[in-house]
From TrEMBL:
<dbReference type="InterPro" id="IPR010035">
    <property type="entry name" value="Thi_S"/>
</dbReference>
<dbReference type="InterPro" id="IPR016155">
    <property type="entry name" value="Mopterin_synth/thiamin_S_b"/>
</dbReference>
<dbReference type="Pfam" id="PF02597">
    <property type="entry name" value="ThiS"/>
</dbReference>
<protein>
    <submittedName>
        <fullName>Sulfur carrier protein ThiS</fullName>
    </submittedName>
</protein>
<dbReference type="InterPro" id="IPR003749">
    <property type="entry name" value="ThiS/MoaD-like"/>
</dbReference>
<dbReference type="InterPro" id="IPR012675">
    <property type="entry name" value="Beta-grasp_dom_sf"/>
</dbReference>
Length: 67
């Protein structure tokens, strides 16, 4: 298990966890979000293969509508 920070909340995840698996685990929508690890945006095409390292800082941003 490794510890990562997701929107300033520390979580323990398996070392083999991918972005897609994390989003499912935390019940996050898969559409309308941006995902960054250590201030680096990760392209959606990489979510099924991109993993984490201990102490990574994750930011999930939900798109909103408005005017």
């Amino acid at each position: 298990m490794i510890k990562i920070s997701v929107n300033e909340t520390v979580l323990e995840v398996e070392e083999t966890t991918t972005i897609s698996k994390l989003l499912t685990k935390i019940k996050s929508p898969l559409e309308g979000i941006a995902f960054a690890i250590n201030n680096q945006i990760i392209a959606k095409e990489l979510w099924d293969s991109h993993g984490f390292k201990s102490n990574d800082h994750v930011l999930i941003i939900q798109a909103t509508q408005g005017g």
